Fold:
Amino acid sequence: MTRGHRNGTRVSTAARVSQLLIGRPLRTSQATSEEIGSIEGLPALSLDALTSVAYGPEAILVVLAAAGAGALHLVLPVTLVIIGLLVLLVLSYRQVIDGYPRGGGAYAVSRANLGPKVARVAAASLVVDYTLTVAVSIAAGIAALTSAFPVLTPETVPLCLAMLAVITVLNLRGLGEAARAFLLPTALFVVGLLAVIVVGLVHPLDAHHLQPGASLVARHALTAVSVLLVLKAFASGCSALTGVEAIANGVPLFREPRVQRAKRTELLLGIILGAMLLGLALLADRFHVGPRAGDTALSQIMALSVGRSWAYYAVSLSITAVLGLAANTSFGGLPVLASLLARDHEAPHLFAQRGERLVYSRGVWVLAVLAAVLLVAVGGNTNALIPLFAIGVFTGFTLAQTGMVVHWHRARPAGWYRRAALNGLGATVTAIATVVFVFSKFTAGGWVVVVAVPLLVLLFHRVHTYYDTAGAAMGLGTVPAKPRARATLVVVPIIGVSRVTEAALADALSMGDEVIAVSTVFADDPDAPERLQAEWDAWDPGVRLAILRTEYHSLVHPIVRFLRSLEQQPGRRIVVLVPVVVPRHWRHRLLHNQLDLVLRTALARQPGIVVARTAFRIDEEAGTDG
Amino acid sequence: MTRGHRNGTRVSTAARVSQLLIGRPLRTSQATSEEIGSIEGLPALSLDALTSVAYGPEAILVVLAAAGAGALHLVLPVTLVIIGLLVLLVLSYRQVIDGYPRGGGAYAVSRANLGPKVARVAAASLVVDYTLTVAVSIAAGIAALTSAFPVLTPETVPLCLAMLAVITVLNLRGLGEAARAFLLPTALFVVGLLAVIVVGLVHPLDAHHLQPGASLVARHALTAVSVLLVLKAFASGCSALTGVEAIANGVPLFREPRVQRAKRTELLLGIILGAMLLGLALLADRFHVGPRAGDTALSQIMALSVGRSWAYYAVSLSITAVLGLAANTSFGGLPVLASLLARDHEAPHLFAQRGERLVYSRGVWVLAVLAAVLLVAVGGNTNALIPLFAIGVFTGFTLAQTGMVVHWHRARPAGWYRRAALNGLGATVTAIATVVFVFSKFTAGGWVVVVAVPLLVLLFHRVHTYYDTAGAAMGLGTVPAKPRARATLVVVPIIGVSRVTEAALADALSMGDEVIAVSTVFADDPDAPERLQAEWDAWDPGVRLAILRTEYHSLVHPIVRFLRSLEQQPGRRIVVLVPVVVPRHWRHRLLHNQLDLVLRTALARQPGIVVARTAFRIDEEAGTDG
Structure:
């Protein structure tokens, strides 16, 4: 071996840039290095739910404001109904944790109990849900930022995309150090916001400082408050409940005793979220807060409670940070879901392959692109996404609860009847809520979800059907016949007589029983065949040269035709060996023909022909660059 | 052979769309079907020069207007100097036609007489020149259109790009029917514009109808007219002389007697262009025309001569059409130049390959992209491109004339001294003009050319150096050793036991003396090796299986490492045969792993290893779609 390689230490520039962003490959043993406790479960799995206070109450106010300032007081009763639903969901999901200690997302529970078809609906809902969570969380996070610093408002979309990019890169690196790093901002957010609420309830700023925030609302007269309006407000407000299921999906992440810790986290989440929602509803009612452009309802409530003080800015920034982390939670979810779907042959298998950082990087990329499209489509406006949001989430809730009813009915542990009843109640209520959402939100954007979910279900079905067919064709699960050797003919496309041709023919002679060199010549150079043949005969490499004349200007078609004519004689294995000149530097690639790529494409549909390439490397040490 | 192919009749969708736009492949014998006469030489080769009346006079006025309305009368003397230069150039280029009857572009003449280094400068100037001609012609063509129909003005850039797209597609189809189709619009343009000029000179519209057009100018007081100003006006006006060299480049296109016909066309061009420039300068002077936003000087002159009558609109539309055809002329030029450069190893060889329509399609694409970038960069504004324009053109003029002096000096035909003197005068005058352009236009955009030309020269040099090195490494021009066969080891990466594996092993056994199957298993599935080995032993295909355990999540790296360890034993040819599952429909591609692509990339820099792929085709006739 004269041309040595540097024993694997040479790394391409692209790989180096990628390593800088994503980090070095991880060993499999470096995975699952971290297990979490009950408190750490909040930042790791509950941020989506906790941070929904940043958009849930506002979503209610936006709907109510349409009916005039007088309707705003309905925020309190609507919120109380939602809190009731929260209690039901928390209890239901504590039972899911009991039933599926190895992690029971809506997809897993539906698949186990309701069959693969229903599970597809759950999976489709979850895909929509994860994507929307990312988009809504980022939009709301940037809204919190631009409310605090209005000068940033014109940059809303770029800021959203920048935040998305940071989260994507962090996730491509792997979630390793996540939960512990998330603890501090989560604590700041929870404690800070609860403190602001308490101050607002007990001792708000002097009334003289209050700026009544209902600029958008004041223009409307009070109109009749219809049932539909209340239902719409409820549907929008239910966006505050998204993410309640995440803990049940993530049970395996907890330290032993897992189930107890996870259930404790779920309870903690319910208490904190309920308290925040209640407090914010009381304050919104007291301060007559309405939706305002450029200032979120939450920001108004905070400013009215503690003024635009350091506390306001600190909590605002923590809200932005924690919403970013909430988006991050979905990045933990969708790729895992996609890998489960891939393992069940419902999604392309490539989603089941881990990247070198041990994360399901394809899923991360897909989620990032989908979220970016959504954010750009709505211009980073949270409220434009809310009508899409709850439909998918509540479809998942309903399916998971229904699946649990079947689960208890099958497993019949002690007291299963009571447990089944609770999950059944949850399923019924969330099913009703889902129907309410679809009807009240259809024209406002809900149709997107109503269209997307069936399309995804169809996609999963088609993928599954294809894998079934392909598996049968590939004889998966059966023992194939024994492989048998055949005589081999190697065809080598060449351009002229050179060391490249020599090396390729040497390879070809090593691989086949018979070797033919072929060369395409164009009719507009009538002397070419004789010239080439003379050169060939002078060299006399011991291999026959077939000169393919063509009337058309294509190097490839004559070779393909020649190969087809060879194929007429059966019993022979045909190998096309394409010599490829490989320069040392990538930028010189363009200077050599890419015949191998063209031939590969042309022969891709040609079964029975093996396409091989042999590299002839050029080391231009004498070149002009170092 | 059971799996038949449809004997070459199946065409992919992409190929079908491409054929619709570009046309079916042409036979080589279908090329060079057309030869042209003296009159047809005008539309075929002189449109660039003729149509420069659409922007040349205006370019003078723009410069003069900066010094106030009083300076506008200088348009006449400046134009007279330019016409003098035109006479000199026409005479000089008639001599080029004599000297290079096989087509003597600045590149060919410089290379033959001044050596490859100077020729690189000429080639670089020409590349800049062709690109600018396309951009300027299209911008001026759309300006003529928007002057006639001001409602279109806001769509200037999209209109420019649409015109460029049409020209690009026509050129990808091949220039076949060009010259004859161009005759009618060219005649309409020449006759129409000359008629308008005559009417304007003899019997313009009544003075009451005249709208003095100098709105931009009126605001300036007359300032001192400096020498620099006159030089700048001259430099800008010389953009009217671009394209004078095109006939000399295209001599081979003429019918015999070629030289006589080409010289006659050159003369005809000089007379018509000179007459138009003179007439327009006289009218601009008489009507006190100045530059106006949204109405070109030419449009103003025409409107003042014949009113906004049918004649005005007819000539305006013919100007737009003919400017489009002028851009088309460059599309005939740059790709041919690029192919010459490629043959001289100064540009990537792929520019020397004709596409299936027998045109140098890569050159067409490059020109289209460069022109699009320029048009977007200046927002379709002709006058922003003028300062860049003449520098490259006149550099080419100077080099071609200098080369001719050397040519005459070497060949010494009868009267060579007189001929050399004429070309020498041309070289001197155009060299002075080039220096004037660079200095007077540097800050206005000329620097772009001053930077681009040396960069292109450097690029040609680097490409040439690389091809020299590569040619030496490939032993071009020497007779290589005879190829010798060696023992071959075929390595087959597999995933499991299936018909795909069977087919691949059968191929491998046909190709090599020894075969090893390899499979990568990850450390996080500790049972995988035993499971796989048991399956393998049960099948017993007569081939050894190497199971590669890896701590990292990469299928490829373990295989690459394994291959490197095999390479340590010299004397063996190593072939990696990758089984690839190929579905019937492209959209199913994503559903199978692309291990071959990844391996190919990873092994691209690994000389001595042949990478082969064998396709296992899946015919899912039982699938859900037809």
